[in-house]
Input
Amino acid sequence: MEQLIGITTDQAPADPAATDDMLVTQPIGYWSGLAHTAVTRHLRDAMAKIDVTQPQYWVLNRVNGGTTAPTREEVVVQLTPLADGEYEIARVVDQLLHRGWLRIDADQHLHLTDLGEAARARLRELVTELRAVVHKGISDEEYVAALKVLRRMVVNVEADSPS
Output
């Protein structure tokens, strides 16, 4: 294991009422999990009001992005690690085809229809509004610093994992 820099801090039990001076002892898994749950619930609740799911938004964005249109299999492979189950993304593609938001060409590549592009644009606006709520009182610098810390923690854990 890599030599730790500085003094190792004792890990305290998760405490939602921890004061700022106590945060250094708080477990990152608790707080990152709490943030993930709260932000994801907020996003999914807002999307549900317009009859769309977060995975549907992922698929619309994936089909829209890139220089070449992806195949169904490419979308499934890329997005399944984010999904709640191994079959969710394939089902979402079927839902979006049924809604007429996606179409498949003769080479089996997926494309947004005009309805799909309109939905993607509408969702992009919604997500931007929701992002503003999540980021209220947080500067861009603070946000970047937080993500850098989380990214470094992921690297640290993955480097320490025997895989």
In short: The beta strands are 102-104, 110-112. The helical segments are 28-48, 54-64, 72-79, 88-99, 114-134, 140-160. The mean pLDDT is 91. The longest strand covers residues 102-104.
